[in-house]
Fold this protein.
Amino acid sequence: MHFSTPDNQSSSTWGQDHGPSKSALLDVAARIKPWIHRTPVATSRYLNELSGAALYFKCEQLQRMGAFKMRGAVSAIAALTDQERARGVVTHSSGNFGQAVALASKIMGIKAYVVMPLGTPKVKRDAVLSYGAEVTDCAPNLWARETATQEIINKTGATALHPSNAMEVILGNATATMELLEEVPDLNGVMAPVGGGGLLAGTALATAHFGHNCHCWGAEPAAVDDAFRSLKMGSIQTNDQTNTIADGLKTQLGSINFPIIQNGVASIFCVDESEIIASMRLLWERTKMVVEPSSAVALAAVLKYPAQFSGKKIGLILSGGNVDLSQLPF
């Protein structure tokens, strides 16, 4: 079975004395509230029957700009000084965080630069441009992303906003699960997709501080299973290739979010490409929700490992819905 728990634990050992406090999370939630949507929680009788569990979908595809990333982007920009805002912000992103930074910058009145790898879905690139950000294209690898970002910093003095490995971003991301647990307080656990780790780390913080015996789980494409291997090995692992339909999950964990994930995530479950596509189609057809492949990874994990979730109340973070309709896999 392709799922992992840390070698030294069988479930979450996150304690209330580790990492950001509950009050810090509440402060961030209040700070970003004017700039974001409180997204709905959806259910499906059919998917409950199919999974054997009671599933509660946090619909972040209905967030502003179409993904949870808006939460982290607003949180990060809100924390900048006036001098930093005057110089603008820069990020590298395959799409959703770039859109989030572009839109957050527009509504908060600052300049945004976004480095985007070649091959980014057209719908995401077009959205970044439509929000007024300046886009720089680069090769589809981490070195190229970071090099282009540094060149912009050297030229403009812009502040770099990391898509996932920054505490203000992680805290902003946590607010999705905070809202979910406020609406469904007796969840047995929350499943979030994992790529760069910012959403999963935020989910871990929220379940620890606001859940009641509530686990945090990650879901990841088997084709890019670095988070799965990182949790198992106890150190950050990398991928030799990034060939997955879940384009938002191709990046790797970072030094800030990985310790949170180690302490707060019970298991990471891996799913195959065909399982991601099947779950995406289920969500489109049965719930009428337009979600991108990265969102479908969470449902795919629950369906693949029924023995782990049967009879439980499970929250699933639908991370985004920015889909290139000309490239649908079904």
In short: DSSP finds 14 helices and eleven strands in the chain. The domain at 3-67+166-327 is CATH 3.40.50.1100 (Rossmann fold). The CA atoms of residues 230 and 236 lie 5 Å apart.
